Amino acid sequence: MKSTLKLKTIDDIEKELSIIITCEKKQKSDITLSQIFDFLAESIELSIQGVGYTTKRTTVNKLLGKYKFAKLISTGHYTKANQIPGFPPRDLGDPESAQLRLKTSLTAFKLHSGPFADHPVFGELDKKQWEKIHGILSSFLFGYIQLFGDEKLRFAKDRENKKERNFSEKKQNHHQRKNEDKGESKPSGHNNRKWKNKKKSHYKGNKNQGGGHK
């Protein structure tokens, strides 16, 4: 199953999760929401908490892991569930707890600066590399969730409209402040110019009175 989602960052995952939570949805297969959320949460948790739980990897395994990682990044998606070790997990039957667990793990990942655990297949990864893996995994697993009708489109459109309104309001407020600043400074500058002109004409008069050509 190839997903059309392209989630690249933790922020992307959080936004998509908020859409899934808000919209009406149903399963596309026998994979439940609880399994999806729990598996994603566990993957993220292990990337930041599994430090030290590494297995000895031969040089061949290290090279093979780097090759598999590069291949996954270049394609940008999983195509089959059997490409993901340990999926699907046992269904705990509590989607609300799984949802909260996933939200918590996403926040924890954003706040965690390191060190990071080794991936069981790809080996040593840094934060950016782990983030890419989480994005690709989320894109694939969220593909098991079907949203009813155009609920997702409507939700995304409302969010974009809200952003546009906020931007317009900020832009309008900025112009108002700019105009107010101009209005306050203009009289002062105008008076200064008058004073300079008066001073200049007075100076010319003194020059003529001092014996200049008539």
Provide tags for this entry:
214 residues, mainly alpha, 2 domains, 6 helices, globular, DUF1569 domain-containing protein, DUF1569
Low-confidence stretches: none
Whole-number total of structural domains: 2
The strand order across the widest sheet is 1-2
Helix content: 55-70%
Q: Per DSSP, what share of the residues sits in E-state strands of 2 or more residues?
A: under 5%
- SSE-based structural type: mainly alpha
* Beta strands, count: 2
C-alpha Rg (nearest Å)? 31 Å
- Oligomeric state, counting identical vs distinct chains: single chain
Shape: globular
Please count the helical segments.
6
Biggest sheet record: 2 strands, antiparallel
The first-to-last residue Cα distance is 100 Å
| Elements, N to C (H/E) | HEHHHHEH
Instruction: Let me know the average pLDDT.
Output: 80
Pfam families: DUF1569
Organism: Leptospira levettii
Biased composition (Basic and acidic residues): 161-171, 178-187
Biased composition (Basic residues): 191-205
